[in-house]
Amino acid sequence: MRLKPSVVLRLYSLCGILIQVAATKSKAKGSQGQFPLTQNVTVIEGETATLTCRVDQNDNTSLQWSNPAQQTLYFDDKKALRDNRIELLRASWHELTIRVTDVSLSDEGQYTCSLFTMPVKTSKAFLTVLGVPEVPQISGFISPVMEGDRMELTCKTSGSKPAADIRWFKNDKEVKDVKYLKEEDANRKTFTVSSTMNFKADRSDDGAVVSCRVDHESLNSTPQIAMQVLEIHYLPSVKIIPSTLWPEEGQSITLICESKGKPLPDPVLWTKDGGDLPDPERMVVNGRELNINSLNRTDNGTYRCEAANSIGLNSAEYVLIIHDPNAMAEKDATDHAVIGGIVAVVVFVTLCSIILLGRYLARHKGTYLTNEAKGAEDAPDADTAIINAEGSQVNAEEKKEYFI
């Protein structure tokens, strides 16, 4: 029996369908143990991100990468999305790796790798994009600052994701008492952070380096730093330093007027007892020094040094007392004579006391009779009894007593 051509075509189509179904079932059965493997990626804005999808065992099943919007990026080695930043690095039955260059914040999200088995198996990889903070700026600085005024410095940086950390330092020593503020930027992805340091200006701060440091994980342990050198103006401080602490008549002395201030004080002014220096020939001013030659008692008095700058005036005083070396020698000799006389008196009194005590002991040393022997029972004391009994000693030998 001869079949019609239309019937033959139908038989061929049916055979093809049966063969395709059998092949699909066979592929699905061989792919049951397969599962795509991916890994989360963190990248800095503007750099390159690499996304890799691997399958340990694959029997020619297709792999696909899609972006957070579920747009296909690559299907095996075929590019699906027209984006010049996206490139294929490796495509095989076991791996599909793509690269995204010049990553932007909008690229952040969840990417999907699909393995087209029956059913389709997927694995997610989250791409995190770090926003780099801008170079910090310090505002509120005024130069110069007067001592005693309050200073308020603010450090600010924008574009960080997550929010950056700001720290203050003064001469490499961290300042803890600061205020911190974090605000979300208009793109709702990055942050603007600021920190304010408030302190009272002191002369010790003059020349100090104040720095604001921004730390962020996108900076690879290299913080961004803004610095400012402080300039503090203050009233002069004045001190007089003598070249000797014991000036003597006939010698010379130099009084040094040590003055410190910002701006630098003008040349100092020397006065004596509220008036001009009385003897310019011997009293010579050389810069901040006052030299006085051939000292005498008329130079005694109060010397004053004044220093002034644009902030104000300050002064210090020194009382000069001239010592006469001859008077000191006479005084020493007098003191020695007085001391010698006192010592001589003490020695004389001591010797006299010793002599009197010796005579007293010698007089009372020996024997004495009892009252019965001397017949002096009514004697008021021992000495009287001895005196009264001197005549009775011959007949009273048997009643004699001894003492040591």
Task: Give a short synopsis of this structure.
The chain has helices spanning 5-30, 325-364, 371-374, 382-388, and strands spanning 41-44, 49-54, 63-66, 72-75, 78-79, 86-91, 95-100, 109-115, 121-130, 137-139, 145-146, 150-160, 165-170, 173-175, 178-184, 191-200, 209-215, 224-229, 232-242, 253-262, 269-272, 283-286, 289-292, 301-308, 313-320, 367-369, 400-402. The protein is of the alpha+beta class.
Give the terminus-to-terminus CA distance. 180 Å
Q: Please tally the β strands and state the result.
A: 27
Please state how the strands of the largest beta sheet are arranged side by side. Answer: 1-9-8-3-4-5
Shape: elongated
Mean pLDDT: 84
Contiguous helical run count: 4
SS-based class:
alpha+beta
Low-confidence stretches: 1-31, 367-376, 392-404
Q: What fraction of residues sit in β-strands?
A: 35-45%
- Percent helix, as a range, is 10-25%
> Largest sheet at a glance?
6 strands, mixed
Rg, nearest Å: 56 Å
